[in-house]
Amino acid sequence: MGPWDIMSQHFVKQGEPSPGISSFTKIRLGWITRPQVHFVKPGETSCAFLAPLSKGGETLAVKIPLRDGTYYLIENRQPIGSDRMLPDAGILVLKVNPEAQEGYGTVRIMNADAGGPGFTRATFRLDRDGHALFMDKANKIAVISLWDESGNLGVLVVSPEKSDEALQAALLIQRMVHRKGSGSEGKIEEGLNKAMAAFKRFDFAGIARMAREE
Question: Is pTM beyond 0.85 here?
Fold first, then answer.
C-alpha cells in the first residue's frame, strides 16, 4: 500500500509526520462501523458520496464482495488531518485478500497511474485525463470517480458494459461544474442540478441529450 497506510509505510518523507490509515485498517480497528460502509454487489449500479477518510462522516467506504472471498474497498483520501502527508488525493481502490498472510499482499492498491513511483498518483480522479475509471471485467465491476459535493467525493459502481456511457455522463457534469461562474450562472446551475439528478437515477443517456440541447 506504500504511503497510503502507516502499517505499510511508516513515513512519506524522512523527518515528516507519518501517513494516515486506510479504510481496511480502520474497519479492523472498529473505527469505521458497518453503517458507514456502502455495500455493492458486482454487476449492480450504485452511487455513493464519500466523506474524506481522515475527517470522518456518514459514509466512509464502499465495499464490493467477490465470490472468491476477496473484496474491494473504495475510499476518499484527501490531504487533511492525519492524511495531510499523502502524495495524492482522490478515490483510492483497494483489493483485500483476507486469506493472505500479513505482509504478503493482504491489501493491494489498484494503482490509477503505474507511472507514478511508489503509488504517488494512485487515486482515480474525474479531473485527471484517463484516470477516472477502474475496471475489473472478470468480476463485472467498473468504478468511476465522480465530482465533489459539499466536500464529499462521489463514486459510481457499475457493470463494465455501462461504464463508457456512465463515464461520458460524469465528464459532462464535470465540465458543467467548471462552467459555473462563467456567466449565465442561473441557467448553468439549473442545467447542472438536472444533470446531477439524472445521473443519480442512472439516466446516463438523458445527460447526453441535455448536453446536445444546450
Answer: yes
